[in-house]
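The instructor's notes for this session suggest beginning with a concrete chain rather than abstract definitions. Hand out the sequence below and ask the class to guess, before any prediction is shown, which regions might be ordered.
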Amino acid sequence: MTTWLIILVLIIFLAALLYWQLIIAEGAYLGAPLVALFYDWTAQRYNRIKDFNREAEAAWLGAPLVNRLHRQPQALVLDVATGTGRIPLTLFEQPDFQGQVVGLDRASKMIKVAGQDTATFQKRIMFIQADAMALPFADHTFALVTCLEALEFLPNPATGLAELIRVLAPRSAAQPTAGWLLTSQRIGWEARLMPGKTWPRHDLEAILSRFPLQYVEIQPWQDIYNLVWAQKVEN
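After discussion, reveal the predicted structure:
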């Protein structure tokens, strides 16, 4: 009886561990290659799963991004963890945005879907399969850098955040509307079960304070995410 009880407890523990790792954390602790594999498995149906609303995307993402680039309609934008091209699509649908976008992701099949969905704008977009922890770009390259719903899936979210800021061009007298960062903060009960991958608001604010940023704003967005805005300034 004792042996069977031990076996039952072990089975329950392993089931709970698998549920935590695969369902709640979505593979975040299992390494970037596995996370990319999970997303590749769902690439063809990802947009149906997420069921993006174009009007909501424009209101929360497209229009605010373009408003912050109002003096740089031809800005160069980097979207890290671009997935199926969510950010590029909402930007291209904004009449005041005439710039170019680089979409970066580790999941090759997600990039393939993104390329299909943005085919109309193929002259203004380039997709790269690369590691977000070591962005293949020089410092101060992009006027705008975005990374949504992805920091918690990086091996080290704080280092990943530093990479986003590194390739972001700072605001300057010549480019007063450059330097904008848009990322997201995981919230909700799931976030509490992802130690080391997510931050409470005060911890996130402390991390952001280490960088040359101004106008830091954390605003409610979805049930499980906040939007995080900031502008990089010259040191």
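Then share the key points. The longest strand covers residues 213-220. Strands lie at 76-80, 100-105, 125-129, 144-147, 180-186, 213-220, 225-232.
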